[in-house]
Specification:
2 helices; single chain; alpha+beta
């Protein structure tokens, strides 16, 4: 399951501290940082990629200074459960599996 989102017109004064807080907070919450890049003065993208081992969860966050876009995405591997009725095995539908997954709660940071 994949969920992507984007915010436009996000100034660096908001996006940069937000990415730094996300980096720190996600590490504190047990996420493994796959990649973290601060764009610097060269106009490069800022990015953060994290994963949770063994759970098939990944998240990414990018701030593109040239477009002033802040984007993010969350991916989770779904494991479909099997149900047995009268000796017959049935795979739950993907929509049933998706209903049982809750994305992490993201909200405004605290100074």
């Amino acid at each position: 399951m994949v969920h992507d989102w984007a915010l436009d017109d996000v100034p660096a004064s908001r996006a940069v501290p937000g990415l730094r807080r996300l980096h720190r907070r996600l590490q504190e919450d047990g996420w493994t940082v796959s990649s973290y890049r601060e764009g610097g003065k060269g106009g490069q993208d800022w990015s953060l990629y994290v994963r949770r081992d063994g759970e098939g969860e990944r998240m990414s966050f990018t701030r593109s200074p040239d477009r002033r876009y802040f984007t993010g995405g969350a991916t989770r591997t779904l494991r479909l459960r099997h149900r047995v009725d009268g000796g017959r095995r049935h795979v739950r539908s993907p929509s049933d599996a998706a209903d049982s997954v809750r994305p992490p709660v993201l909200g405004p940071g605290r100074p």
